[in-house]
Design brief:
- With about 475 residues, the chain is an alpha/beta fold.
- It folds into two domains: about 425 residues, Alpha-Beta Barrel (TIM Barrel); about 35 residues, no CATH class.
- It has 16 helices and 15 strands.
- Helix 4 links the parallel strand 8 and strand 9.
- It starts with a strand and ends with a helix.
- Bound molecules: flavin mononucleotide and iron/sulfur cluster (SF4).
- Iron/sulfur cluster binds next to helix 13 and helix 15.
Length: about 475
């Protein structure tokens, strides 16, 4: 396999000029503007008013109870997110059923726990009310719940992979083998559809403004899009139409039953997963030794157009498979313990996100709204690159993941002060990912250390 040779470096910019110089040295089409007003503009999707162009991405805390209900730590996270002042809070990955849980501590919404689950909406609202009282310029965020079946990465207790097709390298990096779990049959898939329906019904009932039918990071629905090698199935093969049939059937069902001007069916979608053909989505369809594989957005663009025709108006775009190569899905300074540094500068990873998002945005109808990803590595300079992208119409809203763990008030800092406090920013050390991989609760070990450092230390000791 040929690896593109580039040098990884850590973030070390003492000024905007130093960052600009590095961008020039790497010959990247990235731009910073000091005026962040574009991020403060409101936006309307149907009847839903989004007060600014900032979003908190879904960030799983792995801290639910055995039945999937939120705990004190979950409520605390959403209280902190509510204090941000962002226009959209995209709630973390929530399992649609016990078999599809990514870990035994993942949130899961059901009839029995729906009232307890509602607390995480109320917590964010409480913090938002306070913010409005204190500053008077924020309104309530819109709140989207991410619904997921973890597919190959299901770990309801011990690992039980449920795959669309077999592809050993993916199992190998996750330390599971082909004899673990199963390949789902077409009728298994059709049954899973009913769980999406039940979860969406409950999410609407308890007050979310929409649900995300999750199609990213190589969980089950995302894997279905690359099911080129799935034989003897209505839902796989060479044709785009068969590989997207199952997903479209779910989305059509959700839209027809639940979508309204006040409740969105939307999706966090991978537009490129960085896995070589014939196992990758959004990649060139030829066998090649180039890694990461060359993107080809033809099918992702077609899919966004098709889903828009069905009734999806909002997409949160992302890339990569964090289990296979987390440098693609979250550019970092430090990888998780034991993982390799990528052969590229993290700025090239940031550029990959931004550039692919621009290409999508310029190829779809303007009434489809797009949220971008990949900004946290830029720390205190992220608002200036984000503001440029929004001001140019390259993206409608910018989302932050790890930044929200580290510095949940980033939204109010941008809106009120036009800047982020460098001492509060995420330093992309991957310790939150490490906590998750070790099977404990997760959050920011660095900036929220009084809560998460003990878990990190405890687990470190266990491993020693
Ligand atoms: C600890 C952790 C938990 C995450 N949980 C989710 C999740 O529940 N759903 C999801 O789509 N992405 C999840 N992500 C990915 C982030 O939403 C985001 O795409 C990624 O961190 C890159 O954005 P950033 O550079 O702003 O952090 C998670 C990432 C981390 C580090
Ligand atoms: S532990 Fe904190 S600083 Fe480190 S990557 Fe996670 S959010 Fe960022």
């Amino acid at each position: 396999m040929i690896i593109l040779e580039q040098k990884h470096e850590n973030f070390r910019f003492k000024s905007m000029d130093q960052l600009k110089q590095k961008i020039d040295d790497l010959n990247l089409d990235l731009h910073l503007i000091p005026n962040v007003d574009s991020l403060k503009q409101p936006l309307k999707i149907r009847n839903l008013s989004i007060s600014n162009r900032l979003c908190i991405h879904p960030m799983e805390g792995c801290d639910a109870t055995a039945d999937g209900s939120p705990t004190i730590l979950t409520k605390r996270r959403y209280h902190r997110f509510g204090s941000s002042g962002v226009g959209i809070i995209w709630y973390e990955s929530t399992a649609i059923n016990p078999q599809g849980r990514s870990n035994p501590f993942q949130l899961m919404l059901n009839e029995e726990n729906k009232n307890a689950f509602q607390d995480i909406i109320k917590e964010a609202e409480k913090a938002e009310d306070q913010l409005n009282k204190d500053n008077g310029i924020f309104t309530k965020s819109i709140k989207i719940l991410q619904l997921n079946h973890s597919g190959r990465y299901s770990r309801p207790g011990k690992k039980f992979p449920q795959r669309m097709y077999s592809y050993e390298p993916l199992d190998k990096v996750y330390h599971q083998t082909l004899s673990d779990g199963k390949i789902l049959t077409d009728s298994d898939l059709e049954e899973i559809e009913t769980f999406f329906r039940e979860s969406t019904k409950l999410a609407k009932e308890i007050g979310f403004d929409g649900v995300d039918i999750k199609i990213c990071h190589r969980y089950l629905l995302n894997e279905s899009l690359s099911a080129f090698t799935r034989g003897d199935s209505k839902y796989g093969g060479d044709l785009y139409s068969t590989r997207t049939r199952w997903l479209k059937s779910i989305i059509k069902d959700m839209v027809s039953q639940f979508s309204s001007n006040n409740f969105l069916i939307c999706s966090r979608m991978n537009i490129y997963d960085g896995i070589p053909y014939p196992y990758g989505w959004g990649v060139e369809s030829q066998i090649s030794d180039i890694y990461p594989p060359v993107p080809n957005l033809t099918e992702p663009i077609q899919l966004i157009k098709d889903l828009h025709d069905i009734g999806v108006d909002l997409f949160n775009l992302t890339i990569g498979n964090p289990y296979f190569d987390s440098s693609i899905s979250r550019p970092f300074d430090q990888p998780v313990q034991g993982a390799k540094l990528p052969n590229e500068h993290p700025l090239q990873g940031v550029f990959r996100f931004i550039n692919l998002t621009r290409k999508i945005k310029s190829s779809i109808p303007s009434d489809v709204k797009i949220i971008g990803t990949g900004y946290s590595w830029l720390r205190e300079y992220s608002p200036y690159i984000a503001a440029y992208e929004v001001s140019q119409g390259n993206v409608d809203i910018v989302g932050f993941g790890r930044m929200a763990f580290a510095n949940p008030e980033f939204g109010q800092q941008i809106i009120l002060n036009n800047r982020l406090d460098p001492k509060k920013c995420c330093i992309t050390c991957s310790k939150c990912t490490e906590l998750m991989r070790k099977g404990t609760v997760t959050g920011c070990v660095i900036r929220d250390s009084h809560i998460y450092q003990p878990y990190f230390k405890g687990k470190q000791r266990e491993n020693n």
